[in-house]
Amino acid sequence: MTAPDFPYPHGVGDDGAGDPDGHRDVPGDDGYDRPEEGPAATGPDQGPPDRPVDPAESSDGGEADEPEEPLDSGDVIRRLADLLGGATIGLGDVRVRGQNATGHGAVAIGTVNVTTAGTDGTGRIWYERLSETDVRELAQGYAPTSSDQQLDRHLKRRHLVCLSGPSSSGRFTSAVLATVRRHGHDRACVLGAEQPDDLLGPSERLPGGRGYVLRLADTAANAVDGFTLVALAARAEATGMTLILVGDFSRRRQDLAGHVVEHRVPPAVEVFRARLRQQLTGRCVGWCPDGCDGICVERYLDDGCVTHPLLSAYLAGEPRPGEVVPVVELIARSVPHGPALTERLEQLLPRQLRERATQILDIGRHDGPDGVDGWAADQARAFRLACAVLAGQPVAEIRQAAERLAGADLTGIPSTGPRLRGPDLDTLLGSTLRQAVVVVSDERAAGGQRIEFGTGSEQLRSTLLEVAWTDWWLPGQLLGWLADLVRSDVPGVRQAAAGAIGWSAGRDVRAALETVGDLARERRAGVRQAAAIVLVAMAMQPGLRQRVRTELDQWAAGPAAHLRDTVARAYGLGLARLWPDAALTQLRLVAQARMQRRNNSVVRGLVEVYRDGHAATLVPELVDWTASEDPEVRLHAARTLRVLADRWAEPPREHWPELLDLVRRRIVGPGDVAALWAAALGMPQTAYRSWRTLGFWLNRADGDPEVAAHCLALLRHVIAGRPPLCHRLDHQIRHVWRPIMPRNDLLDAVHALIDEDLS
């Protein structure tokens, strides 16, 4: 919760401090600086900048004057999850998605603590501790396999094991749970390293007594040699830790004899049962009349699902666990029965889904050789693919995007082509795609219509992209088209296209990184915002996280201002939830750039770290920022305090400032919060709003003894040993707060603090 502006009737002259930012009473002000990019705005909804702007002081990166749509990280992640098939970064955690997380052989992680990195600054090594809650949830949805016991026996004799198996087979989850059985639910960690021998550096000492799982790409698995394994095993034994290397070691069995355990894939039906049972725990799915005892869940599993002809045939084909889990997730959302389950399965089973996508795009075969009512086949195909990429956007924008992809002016054939209204639009979509989408009337949208994918049909979007990628267009052509859309003037189009580029990284990560690198260098802030969304989408695919981390490390430490700004934006749009410690390190590097004086990218990233439950780490770090020799770093620390101070605790403690409530709960120290307040109140660029917020705190605290007592205790820390702040506080009480809060008794107590400190 954030507080409204404190109502000051005074201007700068009345305030008496000569604040350079002047009077501001901006409706709906969220505490962030406006404008974020370009010159100061002059409209009624935007106040002047925090300080006078020197025309000669241009940012080091150069800016294009462009309005930028503010985005919430949660909204960004939810939209990307629809396209990426359910993968997500939860609020504070990466939610567990089953025996294998959505993606290729991956498991989603809990609260991530990046606590080590290569000393050469490349960030080649880090580990992420899994939360106990998510580990237990993961275990509940896991289908045991016979190789689990073999793995346990090896770990009793050795501290290092290579677990071999194909991707999406559950091998990674098996390794994680093996470390849990060995070390406990709160000591399982995911390890990141480009090569196993990176762990042999003299400074790469990982905390002992824990279990670490390192996933290796095929090339890295094939490159592992016996000496590296022996050295790693010796180090693991010396520290009492367990290290499991996960990858496809099928070609190295003889070379690595004694170290390799072959992962055996559990039967698909058991994976389905275990995961759906875990998903439905605590839910009544059988309309039990006299209270639910959970038997209805087993009945639904046995009689409703695994015996269903479509599902039975699918599971008999032994799909990998990573392929079964998305099917379970979609069934668990609505728990369909009978005909509804049949309809649902026809929509979501991979083979049926692929067939539907192929039918939608194969215009010549399914819609006749002459196209669709005057549209050429490639033009109609481009339109249908654009519907998948730009789901939720106006029909007019989808049509323009299709024109770019088809390389033809679709508006140039109005006499024979459809007008994209009513039945004409239905014909162009085709019966299969029309069943999956909803055409929404929206007067605010260009053309009055938007196209959205209906509930349960979200997975068709990524399947259409997959079919287009493999069957109809060259990857470079699609990436070029998507990059062109990212450079659009329409924010929704930019953001949707960015998600599709992030999806493409799962098929060609190098090409996707080259594309996002070009976008991140753009002068336009909206394009860099979209580039940040690409990075978030890539990081939502666990197998790509190491590549994303490496790229962020290089950009943050490099000289390119726009690349560094994109790093900050990516953390602000969700990556801070995944890598909070790395976010603090890299945001400090970004904060040093002069370009950031006029941007909120760094502050938004820091606030995202705070929102994710890392206040205890963030606040002391910001105190360290206030002591930096770099004025930009100090400025961002003060700006962040100003934004955090505007947040209010959730009910039932909504009358508490959130920071003050954290002090009360001893999550953050009063001295640290006081140091940040002192910096924000004393810095000319942030003083005006900070004094306003402090006044609002005192206004709300008056009449609540507990809040008032904590406010006074904090203020005692703020002014202790700082005579200039004492004098300014005295002025605020006499000339600003007292006239507008004449009956506020708390001000007398604050004044007594001043007399006490100055005496």
Automatic annotation (TrEMBL):
Q: What is this protein called?
A: HEAT repeat-containing protein
Composition bias, kind Acidic residues: at what positions? 60-72
Q: Which residues are the signal sequence here?
A: none
Residue ranges annotated as coiled coil are: none
Native organism is Micromonospora peucetia
Top-level division of the source organism's lineage: Bacteria
Q: Which InterPro entries match?
A: ARM-like (IPR011989), ARM-type_fold (IPR016024), HEAT_type_2 (IPR021133)
Chain intervals for the UniProt region annotation (Disordered): 1-73
Which SUPFAM superfamilies does the record associate with it? Answer: ARM repeat
Q: Where is the composition biased (Basic and acidic residues)?
A: 20-37
